[in-house]
C-alpha cells in the first residue's frame, strides 16, 4: 500500500494506491473511520469535522476536514495510514 498526504488550504488530502487487491478492505477500514469507528492510535480524530472517502478505480481518496480553528498533523495521519497498512497486511487478500 502506497499513500500520499498533502496539506491543502482547508483540508488534508490523502490518496492511497497500490492496494494489491485489497481496495475493498481498505475502503471498508477508511469508511469505518468516517463513521466514527477509527482504530488508529492518534488523537487527531478529535480534531476532525469530517472525513470523506471515495474509491476511484484501484485507489482510495480521503479528504480530512478539520474543525474550525484546528490543525491536522500530517505526520499523525501518516502514522494512521501505516497502522491501517499493517491491519490490511494481516487480512487475507481478495
Explain what you see.
By secondary structure, this protein is α+β, with helices and mostly antiparallel strands. It has a single domain, classed as 2-Layer Sandwich (Gyrase A, domain 2), CATH 3.30.1360. It is built from two helices and four strands; from the N terminus they run ββαββα. A four-stranded antiparallel sheet has the order 1-2-4-3, covered by helices on one side. Strand 1 and strand 2 (12-17) form a beta hairpin. The chain is globular, with a radius of gyration of 12 Å. The protein starts with a strand and ends with a helix.
Task: Give the name of the CATH architecture.
Answer: 2-Layer Sandwich
- Rounded mean pLDDT is 90
User: Which runs of at least 5 residues are low in confidence (pLDDT < 50)?
Assistant: none
Radius of gyration: 12 Å
Strand content range: 25-35%
Discrete helix count? 2
CATH classification class? Alpha Beta
Helix content: 25-40%
Strand order of the largest sheet: 1-2-4-3
CATH topology: Gyrase A, domain 2
Secondary-structure-based class equals: alpha+beta
Number of strands: 4
- Biggest sheet character: 4 strands, antiparallel
N- and C-termini, Cα separation = 14 Å
Number of domains: 1
Return the string of H and E elements: EEHEEH
Shape: globular
